[in-house]
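Quick look at the format.
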Amino acid sequence: MERHYRTLEKVRHRILGLPNVRGVGVGYKRVGLSRTDKPAIIVFVEKKLPVGDLHRDHRIPNKVKGLATDVIEIGRVKLLERPQKLRPAVPGSSIGHYKITAGTFGAVVKDSKTGEKLILSNNHILANGTDGKDGRASIGDPILQPGAYDGGKDSDRIAELHRFIPLIREYEQPECAVAAKAASIGNSIIKLIRPAYELRLYKSTRSSNMVDCAVAKPVSPGVIDDRVLEIGRVAGVGEIKEGMTVQKSGRSSGLTSGEITARGVTLKVDLSDEEAGWFSDQVVSDLVCKPGDSGSLIVDQDNRAVGLLFAGSDAYCIFNRIQNVMDLLQIEF
């Protein structure tokens, strides 16, 4: 194809000067939706028009210096930015409990008992990472779209926290009277030596999480739509298989895809700089994810839900099996 590139350098500016042309390059000619193995000068136009509607001087020839051309309608090309505030709000966009920064609106689901539409995301996105006893969140708390980090304010409230599965930490403060008494005695002694210090006792929970999930109830039915950004509507629930391709639409990294690396995984996840928790029956994938993508729905190539993204490292993303999320939250698609 070297001849095509040399020719392109000679005719580039002339072709780009034609009305309606948005770009030009080298590729393989297409017939309908199928790509052939025939090299061609590819001309991208904003809108493909009938030859008869074009002035003779504005028509793109079938050949340029003996080389075939192919005209492709590309539309208007623009930077791929995700709008922060959307009404109706849709999955794949920024969302969050009023006390957090921002995460991802995962999906629109239905309450298994009432059938009402709900917003699905993580506990740490919609419920501030609560264990249900720490006061971090309460049922009815405001949910903002976009999240606070993305400029969300009280006026951007689109839902209220409706239900969540508590997050279990690796170590928790004990509630028993014996531990409280021991801590009290210890603090009495420590304050005689180091008045600024305080003793706290923690217990190892030896328990693991299966999910990081919560749902919020929209303030009105019309404030949300179920079409996932760049993916479309969810087509039911699928099964996870080793090596299968999955994708997600997230607030930070947009639409990305990758393969399942492992399932049935148990691993330790940092919940904050000071806290961690164990998670079991998880799925690991090599799809790209970034901070702020938490809460994204994971779907297969047929747009069937298979997981809920909640954590990741520099190279891998971790997600809950969607069936576990559905069973525990009592929701369905």
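Next, a different chain entirely:
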Amino acid sequence: MSKPVIAIDMGGTMIKIGIVKEDIILSSTAIIADSGNGLRQRLPHIEQAVKDLLAQQGFSCKDIAGLGIASPGIIDSTRKKILSIDKKFGDAPDIDLEEWCRQTFDLSFCIENDARAALLGEWKYGRAKDLDNVVLMSLGTGVGSAAIVEGQLLRGKHFTAGILGGHFVINYKGEVCNCGNKGCVETEASTWKVSSMPNNIHHEQPFSDYKTVFRLAEEGDSNALAIRDQSLDVWAACAINLIHAYDPEILILTGGIMASGSYIIPHIKNQTDKHAWTPWGKVSIEAAAFPSSSALYGMNYLVNSQNK
């Protein structure tokens, strides 16, 4: 039997921390990310949260297989470094997290992109179990993605393979994205962009999140309806691009915006059924089995794989 793993999911709003064994989260907690002020200032808080969870379970670090971090950004999983990260945790590339882990917990360490980690969690324990060709799209602060092709997680020569679905260009005349490109999926529809979308900036009370957009759209607010419908079409276009790029059996949807999944899944399914070039049949479009914890499961799998 494998030992439990300390798994950490660095979200832009909250940092989730869990002790995971196989497909069970033994205990978990979450702390405020305060990501605009960097990662270094959160490390003592992460350390304390981990120690509290260990104490709850009656564990010491000797009972743990290792520690794994799921992080936004471009992650060198070989050298165990954050290479590039957009806005959130801006100081992270300058931190030696493996050394921090060794000094703080004396544990083996691994790190992976958060969308890849979430996909691994769904692939090993959730919605995509026993499938060999899977794509995940995460709708949240930004738009993330990850792909497994022929049973292999895509990373690529420079660790960007599969994860830049949010930076597919769908409007080449569009606005400049945080990444420097024009008309990315994220610039057309994502939480960080919603407050400055054309139908929002002239609204009496601009919407700050998609929960509000979907609620007011249902109530008939014309500006909210316009933003919702544009966003649904943008995410469907991203889904079609992901299907064309990676030829999956299933596309898994996750992320905070999927609280409105009852609208999103039927629309994306309808659009992909109509417009994706899949002469063999239709790609299954499904919500994640573990929408808030799949990255924790994924890091558990990676730590145990590393230790074999």
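The longest helix spans residues 222-246.

See the schema section for token definitions.
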